[in-house]
Structures are given as C-alpha cells and as structure tokens.
UniProtKB/TrEMBL annotation:
Keyword Transmembrane among UniProt keywords: yes
Segments forming domain DUF4179: 39-126
Transmembrane segments: 43-61
Keywords annotated in UniProt: Membrane, Transmembrane, Transmembrane helix
One Pfam family per UniProt: DUF5643
InterPro entries: DUF4179, DUF5643
Protein name per the record: DUF4179 domain-containing protein
All residue ranges annotated as the DUF5643 domain in the record: 225-319
Organism field: Metabacillus malikii
Amino acid sequence: MNKERFNQTIDNIEIPLEKLVAREKAAMYQAKKRRKVGRKTKHSILVACGLCFTLLGSGFVSKGMAEALSNIPVIGPIYKDFRDIASDKIERDQLMTVIEEQDSHDGITMTVKEAAYDGGRLIVTVVYTGEKNLSLKEDVVGTNFITINGEPVKPAIGSTGQDDLNSKTIIEHHQFTLSNNHEYGNHVEIAVHGENLFGHEGKWKVAFPLEKVKGDISEFYPEVKTKTVDEVYTVTADKVTFSPLSTRIDLTVDYPVEMDKNDTWPWFQFSIIDDKGNVYDGLKLQEGMAGNNGRKMVLTLPPMDTLPKSFTLKPNNVDDVGQSEGLNELELVIPLDINE
C-alpha cells in the first residue's frame, strides 16, 4: 500500500477532534525514517479515534464529587467510554493498580490514578486538575509521553485519548500493545511526562513502580501459513498469546523486497472469527506493527476467559480509491491446541 492510498483511507474517517487530542509521544515519533513511522502514527491515530468518544460530558462537579474523584479509583465505566478492549475484564476483575501519585506545577496537577501491565500491554489513567479552566482546544499542543524503565515505550499499537470531566478536570487514557511480549519482566518502573500542558509552561513527571497483573498467560506457536497463488504474499501466524489484558496474534507478512524500496508494501486489514462464530473487527480488533514496513504485524483482541479452539483470519486489501477488497487466498485458520 503506498502512502497516498493509505492517507486517503485515513482522511475518509471522521475524527472527533474536539474530543481527541493526539499528543506527540516519543514512542510514536522517534523512528529515524519518517516514511515508515508516518504509516504507524496514522494508524495509531485511527485506533485512538475508535477509542475516544464523549466520556462523561462537561458539567459542574460538586466539592463532594471532587473529593470522591481524588479518593476512589476511576475504574469500570471510564474504560468502556474510551472503548478499551479489556474494559469488561478490567471492571469485573479489578485489574487496575491504584497509583494516586501526582505532580503540581503552574496551577496544574497531574495525577496518575491507575495503571495495569501484563507483560504485553500497558494501560495508564491520568487526571489533570487546574486552579483555572482547562481546555482540550489548545492553540499550541503540549507534549506528553510514557517511559518504561527510563526508556520511551516502543509499541506495536498505542493511543492517547482525552476528555473533560468538567471545566477544570481532564481525564486521559493511555494504552499500548508492546512490540515484544515479556520484554520488561514482572516489575517495571513507569513514568508519565508532560511539558507545556493546556497552555501552561513547565514540565510534569509522575514516576511509580508497577507489578504485572496476576493471571494466567497462555502461549501457542501454530506456525501455520498461507500464500497467494502467485506467491507474492505470504502470511504466517507465529504466535498467539492469551493474557489478562488482551489476546494477541503475531503475524509475519512476506512480500517482494522491491515493495520496500518504492513504498508499496501491503497493510492488510483483518477481521477474525473464532470457532464459536464470534467476529472480531472494528473496535474489537486493533492492528499494529512490531517491525518496519508491516512485515511483523500484531493483532490485538479483547482478553478471553475461555480459550477458543481456533481463529480464522480474513484479510482485506484497500485499493487505490479506498475500497476494501477481501483476499480469500490469504484466509488463514489458526488451530489452538488448548491441551498443550
């Protein structure tokens, strides 16, 4: 897929800009080759668009409500409102770790409310409160980003969504699917960084330790593949991981190296069906890259309590006018031996 065709696809998506502030994040913008990271960044914004809708709406919050907000974890409904793929499990199993650490500067307090990490996915909830009104409509958008063990997050998929609870309170949701599972181990040091936020000058930082969420993790290595008749494209299922915060499918997509040189490499859009007939697409499926030019793709689905016996991957390609076309040749059945 060339850049123009991909950009056209993204441009056709209606983005609620008044409710979505896609801040610069080091994890998205530090790649050396802008051509490659541009595709990744646009897709991350696309994911964010799906995640971020009206949260609670603007309105007056009483002193009692404000006190409750500072003392009670923001759990449950917020993750549904931000369309997080693990929202149901987060609410039911109370997976978030209460943090309640903050940093205040220039009339703004940054408070990290909660966070969750399962080795492959990281979620952080932040609340900003101001002595005066705060607005998402910034003339100059500030920057914020998250680090793990002192290094910017390198995600396969990542987004930041924001909404206002009232005129002086903004809530922020960060979610990342990491490029590599288990890269950081069971104990991590997380830090939320902010600079020149909401028209206020200065730097904010909240750092805290975080333990991996307790829960079963199941991994499968099916190593099944499919290819087109002309053998131009090959898709291989390398690994399937079931963890508390997501279901992850790692794919390798092979194509002629010439496509790297002229930037026409493919970005397939998938829908997934399990053996019970459940369909995962739209807000139930996120796509990203763990490597350059889409050769290492990551598909992220909601977490599952009951493991399916198989997944069927149905890829689509987007043509030059932005139309999606099914690629039946590349349909791939991934068997899962639950007795392994």
